[in-house]
Sequence to fold (302 residues):
Amino acid sequence: MKKDFLCLSDWSRVELDKIFDLTRELKAKQKRGEEHHLLKGKTLGMIFEKSSTRTRVSFEVGMFQLGGHALFLHSGTTQLGRGEPIKDTGRVMSRYIDGIMIRTFSQAGVEELAHWSDIPVINGLTDSYHPCQVMADLFTVIEHKGSYEGLSYCWIGDGNNMANSWINAAAVFGFELRVATPKGYEPDAAVVARAKEAGARILYTNDPMEAARGAHVLNTDVWASMGQESEQKEREKAFVGFQINDAVVAAAAPDCIVLHCLPAHRGEEITESVIEGSHSVVFDEAENRLHVQKAIMVTLMA
Ligand code: CP
Ligand code: NVA
Fold:
């Protein structure tokens, strides 16, 4: 069993399928109001160096539902924010608590934290990846489509942390992923190369319509991620046409579903009509963060 959940490509399909099975079980128990205190007496430390609504609330509530406790540790009010080395933070926290969830900028920083911590570390988003979100996305696909297999997936927009994690998922789970980004905003070339080496079927294009044609799952994210706020105006120009709108949905499979990790910028990467429309499953997707992360925490911390 792995100690940490840092990147989807560290895990095998069999291991991740087990997490989906556990997610299904825990979600059913939660819906029935059945106690499932699998992490009784355990504490999760949640380090945030960026903002969050879903990640913070779903991890904190998830720990409560599992009979444990969660600590919100914002970098601005901890010594980490004043320059205490991550290796010291990891070793100290390992003496008090049972797991760490971290949202930060650099993936290398998360890996360093995991290296120095004796306890599991979970990646709650870095500039490179957002693995918990993509697990929730795939669980939502399973719920709506019966399986993640035999479907064609489409990513339109920025080649960002979400796109990178979807590319990793395409390698681990073996589905076809079509990616459309503007020139200059492609996903990380090293991530794509590694995924292709692992057998991923990634089809890259600059034409959103080509990517969307016949796809069963349409997915997008903001044009400017956290930390890129100063590029907002320039990105708005570069991303014209890279929007999931009614025409893009019409080009996809008739029963396609639309995902967005949220928060969304209506009128930019997605239209109001699509996010509020009948193909959108974004609130199921947001809910599933809770259930999937409970399964991840139980897998690593129980
Ligand atoms: N999707 C997601 O991670 O949302 P938050 O930034 O609100 O945590
Ligand atoms: N790509 C976005 C995802 C937010 C959940 C960001 O990093 O800001």
